[in-house]
Amino acid sequence: MSHYDDAFILQNVKDVYSAVANSGSAPEYAVTVAQAFGYSIEQLESVPKDSHMGLGCGNPTVTATLKPGETVLDLGSGGGIDIFLAASKIGPHGRAIGLDMSSEMVKRARQNATKRDLYPPHVSFLECSLTEALPILSNSVDCVLSNCVINLLPQSGKNHIFREIFRVLKPGGRLVLDDILAKEELPRHIRDDMTQYVSCIGGAVQVHEYRELLHSAGFDESMFVDSLADLNIYIMAAELESAAPLNSCCKIAATASTTVPPQNPGLNLNQWAASYQIYTRKPDQPGVDICDTPLERWWDAFPAVQATKFAKISPTELATMLRNGASVAVIDVRGNDRKGGHVAGSHNFPAQTFYNQLTSFHAQFNAMSTVVFYCSESVGRGPRCAGWYQDYLETNVMSGPNVVVLEGGIKRWITEYSGEKDLVEGNRPV
């Protein structure tokens, strides 16, 4: 076990992989490593090239037996390669969710998803530390994947993540991991080398330790298969392409801290570690309620709103504008709850998919003088969507409508104007 404290380990891992997200990998290097660990050329050509960066040690989607309509969770999703491959297997009605501790990685993955027109709730990427409670509801996931990530967690983090995996899996749900495991107890000079830790070697545990972690979390039986892959491929691939940065799973330049000791260039990775595929499942639990909406907070799948202040408009002001024929568009961001009544003439853009439609939304309403957003009480979805639109205008340096939020939402609107048919409509098909 490393003598470094957990916070130091996590910060170094985050810093290094964030640097990888920003710099990317040389294409030939990334392809060489990906093929060495089980990705076919066809698979690599089917996903954005920036989604695979030579960071994995296997291909968990091959043996995950994913089915149409399933919910898949990838822990440490990086640029998104395994999520994109999973999405192609689970189809449009399935959900593929990637979690990563690096905001830079999440940004890269979301950009890659946009290139393939993949959006929440079908494909989602969230920033999340795997050492904290996952933003996923219990008994909501059919299959959990992870590729060369668990070894990067400190010991307490390893204990925690397996308990969390057990919690979020549906009864009978599968866990398919590819990870680096130690062949024997690692000597101190490797465990205490932070460069080796962030390179997936220093934090590796042995098979019997890994099995015990799974068992303690509730997984009764687990299967470990040595892939027999040559871990030195990371080094050889980097040498073949001199332009390749040392940013593979097992060949990362640890630049996160000046206190990190240099990597031993003569280390034979195969002497100390091996790439394993681990498979287990959550036992059946008859009578347990299954959750069909995995995300604890649906808005976590989108960028956080940067705009901090929104202008508000009172019902009286809006009613006057509408009756005077002002240039105003009213946007109802509710979903199924819209049927209870709405502002007459309002346009329905459910909040859960609004962010995906920002470009077309702007094209439709950019000529208006004012755009008014509302939801039930205008304290959640309404302000959030207004914020996303305001951010869109500012990010793209665009002139556009005045963006405001209706005070009190539809509840106050109906209270004040119930029965006034020019202002309130209700029970029409959504």
UniProtKB/TrEMBL annotation:
Its EC number is 2.1.1.137. GO terms for biological process: methylation. It catalyses: arsenic triglutathione + 2 [thioredoxin]-dithiol + 2 S-adenosyl-L-methionine + H2O = dimethylarsinous acid + 2 [thioredoxin]-disulfide + 3 glutathione + 2 S-adenosyl-L-homocysteine + 2 H(+); arsenic triglutathione + 3 [thioredoxin]-dithiol + 3 S-adenosyl-L-methionine = trimethylarsine + 3 [thioredoxin]-disulfide + 3 glutathione + 3 S-adenosyl-L-homocysteine + 3 H(+); arsenic triglutathione + [thioredoxin]-dithiol + S-adenosyl-L-methionine + 2 H2O = methylarsonous acid + [thioredoxin]-disulfide + 3 glutathione + S-adenosyl-L-homocysteine + H(+). Residues 324-422 form the Rhodanese domain. Keywords: Methyltransferase, S-adenosyl-L-methionine, Transferase. It is an enzyme of class 2 (transferase). Belongs to the methyltransferase superfamily. Arsenite methyltransferase family. This is Arsenite methyltransferase. It comes from Mycena venus. The lineage of its organism: Eukaryota, Fungi, Dikarya, Basidiomycota, Agaricomycotina.
